[in-house]
Hints:
three-stranded mixed sheet, single chain, mainly alpha, two-stranded antiparallel ribbon
Amino acid sequence: MTFENFESAQWFLLCTGFVLAFIMGATASKTNFCTMGAVSDWVNIGDMGRFRSWLLAIAVALIGVVVLESVDAVQADRSFPPYRSSSFIWLENLLGGLLFGIGMTLASGCGNKCMVRLGGGNLKSVFVILVIALIAYFMVTPFPGTDITLYSALFYPWLQPFSVSLNTGQDLGSMISGETGALHTRLLVGLALGVALLALIFKSSEFRRNSDHLWGGVIIGLCVLAAWYVTSTIRVDADGETMSLFGYYSEWDMLADSDTGRPAAGSGLNPQSFTFINPMGQTLGYGMSGFNPALLTFGIMAFLGVVAGSFIWSLVTRSFRFEWFANAKDFSTHLIGAVLMGVGGVLALGCTIGQGITGISTLALGSFITLFSIILSSALTMKVQLYKMVYEDEATLGKALVAGLADLRLLPSALRKLDRVD
Length: 422
């Protein structure tokens, strides 16, 4: 896709982000696609339907990315955020995922679900999203009058020493075969993993009969894939030479007559797909700037698209309902959850969509660590909540935690102090 000028190419990028996200928002609303709900169904009632739908979205995006990358239709090596970076921030992926999983459980949904609920009239989600956005914004943006961010003040000094500099990118293809054989290995590994997931998913006859779970996973996976394709193939005709948006931005002073229409940063012009925590912070910054067009990004348009898609669907189905906090405890629990999601989502470079689907589709090792830690901490938080509710004062945090770990078979049952709750 080659455009005559930078402005039209960027506009197409932004509009495509909105349209695809609109479809995602409407689909998630229609099919009740929810990653936290998927974990909850599995942990609390043993229902794997929504979990399989999530896995299906992963499989569709993964297979699509490795196939399109093999024919140079996707360039995930230069992605934003840099999933395949040679700087392996494993502890940030782990800690961020753990915090995010706890946060999304306390806040009754991940970032994507909060946006879907916002479109459906849930006013609690307005508060949660604002808190996430504020935290995410200051995790990467210095406080006024300083060069200090939340990340630099609270995390960088002790997390950075644990990062590992790899000789290759951190995707499985590069780590197995090196840079020269990475493309072929990615295709083989991605197809093998994707097919294995599909076999696991469609093994369930109950899942095969549930059209909502089926189409929810397929459509959301295809939206993630389509975003990768579009952001990787947009080109600008610069006096007969075709250039990527980021390439054009890098040579702006040589190619453009003025700074009119120049984005504030070039990183958001790289190949990318959907992630929602950092874009919430970007959206807040965009609003605080007086809607400066130079700050408008694919992520902001994706955020707006999901909310709009959910909103329109709620109007069409007459399911739009206002909802607010039940009491002070409900408010404080959501507040804590939102803070943890804002911190965790930025640390881990993504959320249940941004790392759990988009990141996994690149085969990045950090994405697998983040996905695992999100699922683990969310499941464990649900177990702790259950034991605290059933046993009340008898269930201290420590006892509930041990019981939860035993339920998940991560500790011997002999260590539990509370009888199992089924």
